[in-house]
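Morning!

This is the sequence you dropped in the shared folder:
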Amino acid sequence: MSQSQQINRPASSTDVAPTPQNTPLDTTVLSNRPANLGRPQVEDIGENEEEDGAEEDVSGVNPASLLAKNPALLALAQAKFDELIGRSSGYIESLPASVRRRIDGLKGVQVEHSKIESEFQLAILDLEKKFLEKYTPLYDRRLAIITGKVEPTDEEVEAGKKSDEDSEDEDEEEEGAKIENLDEDGKKAEGDENVQGVPEFWLTALKNHVPISETITDRDEEVLKVLLDVRLSYLSDEKSNGQPGFKIHFTFGPNDFFSDTELTKTYYYQEKVGYGGDFVYDKAIGYDIKWKEDKDLTKKVEIKKQRNKSTGRTRVVRKVVPTDSFFNFFKPPQPPTPETLESEDVDEDELEELDARLETDYQLGEEFKEKIIPRAIDYFTGKALRYEEDYEDEDLEEFDEDDEDDDE
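The structure's back. Tokens below.
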């Protein structure tokens, strides 16, 4: 797996390790107190005292309760705790010189470990390239069946039926699919024998993938109906100057929107692996789609009438503005330059928004690479939805448990 690039502004502190003396593992303000100190209690106030306007004794009030009632004070305290994270308390510096030398030596051992991690990831990438060559004939076969150039063999049909029998909760899978019912011969339920291949295969598969389906508009569907194939290729050293990465290829049939027959998107990895040992995305390069006149699905025309206050005459103003579309996938956001990050005028909110957009873009590329291309038929039938729902349910359970811990 790969991880996305995270936008971080240059750190002002030096590279020193945090220590238990000054880095709380949980920065929740005063959420845990030592058991032997006891827990402060609010003294009970009698009903009569309250009516007489007696002042409340706040000497025993829980500080966490006070902070919870004062958001500004809570934010200030939280910010102070955040400033402590990553700062040195002087613990490392206070160790004897011989111990600090050993610590430097351990860092050197870690450097060698990181080099082997890089070799490991490059070896995995080479293995992926090797096995892609084995998958290619299967993808060719899939394309031929989808486009109606060939019919599946009896052996392929029987193997497909057996895989359905071996799957659990088959009825639940069929309920989640967004395709028309097919009879055993693979023909439409109405009995139309003139249909070739599998119509709207990739449109259906993409609409059954939740994150991608959210990007598909009604206008996009007309083009995606003629999407014939989606393939993966890896970058060669000659074309990418040795930088690793992969490219996704979208092959289209004739349509009324653009003249291109293939749209591509390229993802580049950073040359060095990340801290966790995985490749880190560096950037993505899209494709300049050759839209036909007034057919750009990523833009829309807003028509407004403007009235002249002096003459009373009106005029029609046409303005082209960006709009939501699946084809914005081919215009990926670009990471900020180092100069932008170092600028004092940089907007933190804009950086966070850009970081979120980059994360989404990298994740979609990973979904095409790891899920949609290898298991397109499972997304077409809806079978993949059951496994994704199970995965989401597990994540939700973990999320609920975390919430309970926070409440405590």
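Headline: The domain at 108-164+196-294+325-390 is CATH 3.30.1120.90 (Arylsulfatase, C-terminal domain).

More detail when I'm at my desk.
O.
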